[in-house]
Amino acid sequence: MSQPATTLAAGSSVGIVETRYLDLPEPVRLDCGRDLHPVRVAYETYGALSPRRDNVILVCHALSGDAHAAGLSRSPSGESTRDGFGAEGHGKGLGWWDGMIGPGKAFDTDRYFVVSTNLLGGCRGTTGPSSIDPATGRPYGPDFPVITVADMVRTQRAFLDVLGIERLAAVAGGSLGGMQALEWAVLFPCQVDAVIPIASTHALQPQGVAWNAIARDSIMRDPAWQGGRYYGTGQAPDAGMGVARMVGHVTYLSAPALSDKFGRRLQDSDEIRYTITEPEFEVESYLRHQADSFVRRFDANTYLYTSRALTYFDLARQYGGGSLERALGGVAARTLLIAFSSDWLYPPSASQEIEQALRALGKPVELQVIEAPYGHDCFLLEEARQTPIIRRFLAQPA
């Protein structure tokens, strides 16, 4: 199996990496009843594959992530990029989980071969709504099939089959990535040794479903969305997408974190300016910045499809007839659940429910709740505190 060229670079212990692309030979059967073909998967790898191919860890990203999980990206020109744009014309600097992947880190590349893929429906190299529909020669747009987390995982399984990897030492991820890890444990119980869902859940709570609905509606109510057929028109639903990102970003933070970071400080002066259209407060300016940067790197239709997939995710409904314990009955993997005290979007109570169900079944499970003030974003910010927990868990015998 070919591996991306990697060279050492300042700022990352992984070095400079290149995103690769693989076309699946067979169609992917989807939960909606459709077959999707062709399917291209964008991926990166870190570390070395063992001769027995038994040291593979799959890391799964959250809603707005991609395959570039660690290291510095190599641009199409061959230059490394910390900012700006890399492969496929997207911003690709330091990988989104670089603090967790590399020699001596949580996912130790001296020991493990770590694989990261862009999920199905993505806009960062894997087939999604912005990809070309071979039937029309135009981007799929709203003709792309509705997908589920299970569809994402089946695509990952098909991708690994092509690479000749039959079994995984672990699957790990935060948020939507954690949902994928749980789905792996249920769908392919005999093919994964351990799963590590972080800041995740077995089913998004109604409040989370509601926030996601508001974000999707903000995109679809933007006239520039054009029913999802905005590609090539010179217009895109940037306004609606920006609002969706603002809404999402607030849900990823906690009230104490926002208070500590911004308080009620004014943006540009010591006195209010009596303006409606311009941001008065630092927090308003911050959210506008988040919106503006996000719309430059992400596709609105992909946001709609992945947001819908995570709201559909419900292990008890999908596999247990309403019973989480029944849904998890076939799980064979060791499970490490990590939650954060201030995460109100994916609260520790959801991880506790998974732990209780697995423990009632006599399954090996461990739950760690980390006291931290940053809300859902803790899974990206509290890397140093997660690392010893994950390293110890992975070091335990299967």
Computed Rg: 21 Å
Q: Which class best fits the helix and strand makeup? A: alpha/beta
Order of strands in the sheet with most strands? 3-6-12-7-15-16-17-18
**What share of the residues does DSSP label as strand, in percent?**
15-25%
SSE run: EEEEEEEEEEEEEEHEHEHHHHHHHEHEHH
Distance between the termini: 26 Å
Instruction: Catalogue the unreliable spans.
Output: 1-11, 76-91
Helix content: 25-40%
Largest sheet report: 8 strands, mixed
- The overall pLDDT, averaged over residues, is 92
**Total E-strand runs:** 18
Tell me about this structure:
The protein is an alpha/beta fold. The chain contains twelve helices and 18 strands. It has helices spanning 149-163, 176-187, 206-220, 238-252, 255-262, 282-295, 300-312, 315-319, 324-327, 348-360, 378-381, 383-395; strands at residues 7-9, 12-17, 20-23, 28-29, 35-36, 40-46, 56-60, 72-74, 80-81, 101-102, 107-108, 113-117, 132-133, 138-139, 170-174, 194-198, 334-340, 365-370. The chain has an eight-stranded mixed β-sheet, sandwiched between helices. Strand 1 and strand 2 form a beta hairpin. Helix 4 (238-252) packs across helix 6 (282-295). The radius of gyration is 21 Å and the shape is globular. It starts with 6 loop residues before the first strand and ends with a helix. The model is unreliable at 1-11 and 76-91 (pLDDT under 50).
